[in-house]
Amino acid sequence: MRILFFMRSTVYVRNFESTLRLLAERGHQVHVAAERHQVLDQTDVMGRLSRQYPGITHSAPPVPEVQRWSQLGVELRKAVDYLRYLGPEYRDAPKLRLRAELTTPVLLAPRVGRRLANADAWRRLLGRFFRWCERGMPLDPAVRDFVRRHRPDLVLVTPLVEPGSPQSEYLRAARLLGVPTGLCVYSWDNLTSKGLIHHPVDVVTVWNQAMKDEAVVLHRIPAERVVVTGAAPYDHWFTWTSSTSREAFCA
C-alpha cells in the first residue's frame, strides 16, 4: 500500500515512530510530508527513519499557489472553531474560551461571540453559514497536484485539529481524487481542547475509549469510523527491561 502521511512538522513524527517502522517492515510505502522543525526536532527522527527504511520517504508539504484563498479558508474554519467554545459543553472552561477568542478572525468580534454564547440557534446557523462558505471555496491546484503525483492508496493527516485546520485542504484533495482518508489523533487532549474536524474522514484512530467518545460526541464522527488502537507513542515502553533487580532497587 502507498500511504501519504501529512504532518504539520517533523516534530509530530516522534509519536508515530513505531507506527511508521511497523508499516515499513510490513512492506508498505510511506511518504511523510512535513516541514523540518529546526528547534524542536533536534534528534531528526524523520531522517533516521528514511535512512533505515527504503520504504519511508520524506519531503516538505505543498505550498499553496493561491495564498489568499488558503488563508480565507483558515479564517473561516477559525470562526467555526470559536463558535464551538461558545457551546454549553465549554461553559465551565473559561480559559479554553479565552484562548479561542484570541485567534478569532475579525469577522467574529469577541463582543459578538459573547452574545452568541447564549443564543444556541443563532450560533448553529452562523456555524452552518461559515461551513457553507468554506466548502464552496476552490481547491488549491498545488495541493491537488501534490496528492495526485504521489498516487496514494490512503491519505493520513495529523494533528488536523489546530485552530483553522490548515491541513483540511489535504482531505479535500484526497476526497476529490477518490482516495480514502484518515486522521491519526496525535495526543490525548487533541479532541477536546483544539479545533474541530471540519471535513469528512473515513477513519479516525484514537488511543482509548474515552477519546472515541470525544470523537463521536464532540466532532460528530460516526462511531463505526473511530478505531481504538492504543497509544502508539508509548509502544517503546514494552521493549524496555530493568537495569537492576527489584531487591537492589529497593535497597
Number of strands: 7
Derived from helix and strand composition plus strand pairing, the structural class reads alpha/beta
Overall pLDDT: 89
Overall geometric form = globular
Instruction: Tell me the number of helical segments per DSSP (H or I, 4 or more residues long).
Output: 11
Helix fraction by DSSP (H/I, runs of at least 4): 40-55%
SSE layout and pairings?
Elements: E1 2-9, H1 17-25, E2 29-35, H2 45-52, E3 56-59, H3 67-84, H4 94-102, H5 110-116, H6 120-135, H7 141-150, E4 154-158, H8 168-176, E5 181-184, H9 190-193, E6 203-206, H10 209-219, E7 226-228, H11 246-250
Parallel strand pairs: 1-2, 1-4, 2-3, 4-5, 5-6, 6-7
Helix pairs in contact: 3-6, 7-8
Looking at this protein, list some descriptive labels:
42% helix; alpha/beta; 251 residues; single chain
